[in-house]
Write a structure and sequence with these properties.
Blueprint lengths: L2 H8 L4 H28 L5 H22 L4 H4 L17 E6 L4 H13 L7 E6 L3 H11 L4 E5 L2 H8 L5 E6 L2 E7 L5 H5 L3
Parallel strand pairs: 1-2, 2-3
Antiparallel strand pairs: 1-4, 4-5
Helix pairs in contact: 1-2, 2-3
Length: about 200
């Protein structure tokens, strides 16, 4: 999540609108720039192919630059969730649980995203750290701060089927059941919209 998306979220927009509105606005900017350049160059050349290519290149350039810096991933466009079966006792309230491994680079990186979306998500976020070492729990708690709860889960046989071996795994729980789960590469805007 970038600063433009964060600003749009602070205005009360949804995660999806905050993700795609900059592309739309940059497309509009590209349109006006392309018309401006087209009118300036049209007086100097009569080559229609050159004018058309120049118009198209100017039109898509702002969107392409933004896309190169902040790309749209597959999880932003389609719902890539799955519904695992679990006999684990889960909380009754709606919450997002992030299942993480100690020492997992991607799990540690996910803490920044969770800290970023926490002020805008309407559900509590919790980390389940697999293992029994309290130092692993303390390191995750230090990464996420006091707004997000961390809990040790020593019983791997109950939690591993939920993750399907992929970490971190994001699990949406409501009424004691798993509603949806996402692997790290599938957790995008469509998943974030579930948190509102």
């Amino acid at each position: 999540m970038n600063s433009i998306e964060t600003f749009l979220l602070s205005l009360g927009l949804s995660f999806g609108v905050a993700k795609f509105l900059p592309y739309f606005l940059l497309g509009m900017l590209g349109w006006f720039l392309a018309r401006f350049v087209y009118r300036r160059v049209k007086a100097k050349t009569t080559n229609r192919w050159l004018l058309g290519l120049l118009f198209i290149a100017t039109f898509i350039q702002p969107v392409l630059i933004y896309f190169a810096i902040y790309p749209i991933y597959q999880g932003d466009l389609v719902d890539l969730s799955y519904k695992p079966k679990s006999k684990l006792s889960l909380g009754q309230s709606k919450q997002l649980v992030v299942i993480a491994l100690p020492g997992c680079k991607y799990c540690s990186e996910s803490t920044q995203l969770m800290k970023g979306i926490k002020p805008y998500a309407k559900v509590p976020i919790e980390y389940w750290v697999l293992g029994s070492d309290s130092s692993d729990l303390n390191s995750y708690q230090a990464l996420v701060g006091s707004q997000i709860n961390c809990e040790l889960k020593p019983n791997l046989s109950e939690v591993l089927p939920i993750t399907e071996g992929s970490f971190p795994t994001y699990v949406l729980i409501e009424h004691g059941k798993i509603i949806k789960a996402w692997h790290n590469d599938a957790f995008g805007v469509r998943a974030l919209n579930e948190l509102n």
